[in-house]
Amino acid sequence: MTAEPVETRTRYDAETLATLTTDAAAIMARYPDPRSGLLPMLHLVQSIDGYVSRDGILFCAEMLGITAAEVSAVATFYTQYKRHPNGTYTVGVCTNTLCAVMGGDAIFDELSEHLGVGHDETTDDGAITLERVECNAACDYAPVVMVNWEFFDNQTPGSATALADKLRLGEDVVPTRGAASVCSFKQMSRVLAGFNDGRADEGAGAGAPTLAGLRIARENDWRAPDASTSEPVAEPVETGPVGKPGSSAERPAATSSDTEVGKDKKPGEDAK
After folding, report:
1. Which residue in 25, 171, 219, 235 is deepest, having the highest Cβ count within 10 Å?
2. Over 50: is that where the pLDDT of 272 sits?
3. Rounded CA separation 84/87 (Å)
4. Are 127 and 168 in contact (CB under 8 A)?
5. Secondary structure letter of residue 206 according to DSSP
6. C-beta separation of 261 from 271 below 8 A
7. How confident is the model at residue 201 (pLDDT cuts 50, 70, 90)?
8. Which residues pair with 146 in a beta bridge?
9. Nearest to 210 by CA among 156, 161, 150, 138
10. By three-state DSSP, how is residue 250 classified?
11. Residue 261 C-beta-side C-alpha neighbours within 13 Å
């Protein structure tokens, strides 16, 4: 699908602008309201610039017929959109509760010292942007490190720094699950924009810890109850309010605390 380039204030060259326009039109066509395509479109411009640049914001605004301020408001809300150049690899260390208890905080601290950067900062060679990330739904493999959203399970400070060193040297690394390799941040951004890279069926899927419950259920022939033969659930019995009717303000005073108002006041103070 091709689209006519819109009048632009961006600084993209003609070839890049034409490619972006065609891809953006494909994104917009997915939605009844083209404005709904803003989120994947931000990933699209990030796949070109390596972050959501000024030109990227202007491009999205021009394509969707909205203001640059509206685009910027969305881009600054979500943490996957970067407002400054990102590294080739985003190394995210889960420091949510379980991963933190299992060593996630220690991994992040070790990586931060080893790489010389803090949260959302990039190494001088542009290879790695380090992040603290929230739960990645991989608690059965805690502590987890992700590289451009590919899983590296059961990490230690030592294994995480070795992983980072390989990334900086340009060596291939293999995720524990999912794709068979790690793509660049720009390539990952294009996938998040909704363009298939053909790697969805690579690598291993769910691992043994995730499937343990299913395995035990099969070994014991445990099955979900048949809805047609299960006992009916009793309807809840409606009951009225518990206690005497009326609020406490409507009931007569019954205790000394109800009548001795202001007894704890100092002499001369009005009781309230």
Report:
1. 25
2. no
3. 10
4. yes
5. S
6. yes
7. confident
8. 92, 151
9. 138
10. helix
11. 6
**Where do we find the tokens 């043994």?**
208
Find out whether 132 and 79 touch, Cβ atoms under 8 Å.
no
3-class state of residue 216 by DSSP: helix
Task: Establish whether the linkage from the previous residue to 143 is cis, with ω within 30° of 0.
Answer: yes
Kindly give, in sequence order, each residue whose CB lies less than 8 Å from that of residue 67, ignoring residues fewer than 6 positions away: 61
CA neighbor of 88 nearest in space, from 119, 51, 63: 51
CA–CA distance, 46 with 218 (Å, rounded to integer): 45
Q: Would you place residue 99 in the very low, low, confident or very high pLDDT band (cuts 50, 70, 90)?
A: very high
What's the rounded Cα separation, in Å, for the pair 121 and 109?
Answer: 14
Buried b (16+ CB within 10 A) or exposed e, 89-126: bbbbbbbbeebbebbbebbbebbbeebebeeeebbeee
CB-CB contact of 140 with 102 (8 Å): no
Please give the helix or strand (H or E) that residue 121 lies within, else none: strand 121-122
- Using CA of residue 125, residue 130, residue 136, residue 142, what is the dihedral sign? positive
46-50, 150-154, 194-198: least confidently modelled range: 194-198
Determine the CATH number of domain 89-183: 3.40.30.10
User: In the numeric block, which tokens belong to residue 248?
Assistant: 């406490």
Structure tokens that stand for 148 in this block: 């451009």
Q: Give me 102's structure tokens.
A: 């299992």
Q: What is the DSSP string of 137-178?
A: S-GGG-S-EEETTEEE-S--HHHHHHHHHHHHHT-----SSS
